[in-house]
Amino acid sequence: MASTLATMGEIRRLQRADGPATVLAIGTANPPNCVPQDEYLDFYFPVTKSEHLTDLKHKLKIMCQNTGTEKRFFHHTEEQLNAHPHFFHRGQPSLDDRLEIAAAAAPELAASAAAKAIAKWGRPATDVTHLIVSTNSGAHAPGADLRLASLLGLRAVQRTMLHLNGCSGCSAGSASLRLAKDLAENNRGARVLVTCVELTIVSPSAARRTPTPTPSSARRRLATEQARSSSALTPWNPSNVRSSRW
Question: Is the model's pTM score more than 0.85?
Fold first, then answer.
């Protein structure tokens, strides 16, 4: 029994990498259309047909001035949005059309960044053994990982797709790196390519005012909430308390 365990331990040791995972190269890419922050309002309100909401434009201007953002990169253009006016009508379905655009554009953007990282790495793309793709821009099957592998010429590669796992710049990106670390350290000779890609075409909407509740409606809502709270509370009764011994 001891010899069997020792043999299994030796096999597992040989399967693992000798050292910790290391980042060998990083590549980044942006969508082609850039809108400077000071021009964003002049882009957003006309394209969403919201120019009449001058008070909201003033509020958004203040927000834009305090974000520290200098540029915004978009896949979508004014012409593309004008060709899909239902994107900005909340009563009309638009998700399928948005996802169709993202399904085609996301792998290409990811491939652009990945190609830069591979070039810095200095080895052929075919040396990549594992591919991790994270995106919040849709959940298609087959996913962006398959299309990306094709664009990069990855043949014998093990693919992992993380869908809707949060923003790729924070939670999803961290999850991708954590998974890549585990793969690299537990598979000797593994070369893991991680790509995180997001397109905001899935989420843009027109500006709108939030209805301001009147005093009477606010009182009715408060009374309803108080009634629900009181009905959910049960008086404490010592006879209902039971003790358990373990």
Answer: no
